[in-house]
Amino acid sequence: VQLQASGGGLAQAGGSLRLSCSVSGGIVFSINALAWYRQAPGKTRELVAHINNGERTTYRDSVKGRFTISRDNAKNMLYLQMNSLEPEDTAVYYCYLEDPWKEQYWGKGTQVTVSS
Fold it and tell me: Of 50, 82, 93, 108, which residue is least crowded by CB atoms under 10 Å?
């Protein structure tokens, strides 16, 4: 299973970015849980948002109301719409997949930098 994240970049505080993650590898995409994590310099990796195979979503408190996670099962795609960005959102963002047998897969990260 391969995950490829894209869409990172530089944004000003208050701006928006949309991250995408394509998933390939012969899996049945719709049965898997998906998530976005992030890791800022000197900090541990943290869960940003999660979406299960029933499309139930959860978010860390600091991004609630600003970020939206979504998935397109027909296209094997995961998304993260990030609005009202803050400098504290600066991090490398990783997409993540967990299959029903608890196997975990990570994509390479995409850098998000928010300037004040």
Answer: 108
User: Closest Cα partner for 113 from 6, 17, 35?
Assistant: 17
- Of 49, 38, 47, the closest CA to residue 90 belongs to 38
Integer Cα distance of 96 and 83 in angstroms = 21
Strand partners, 85: none
Residue 32 three-state SS: coil
DSSP summary character for residue 109: P
Amino acid in position 108 = K
Tokens matching residue 31:
């049965």
- Is the CB of residue 41 less than 8 Å from the CB of residue 18? no
Q: Which of 83, 86, 93, 105 is nearest to 29 (CA)?
A: 105
C-alpha to C-alpha distance for 37 and 109, rounded to whole angstroms: 9
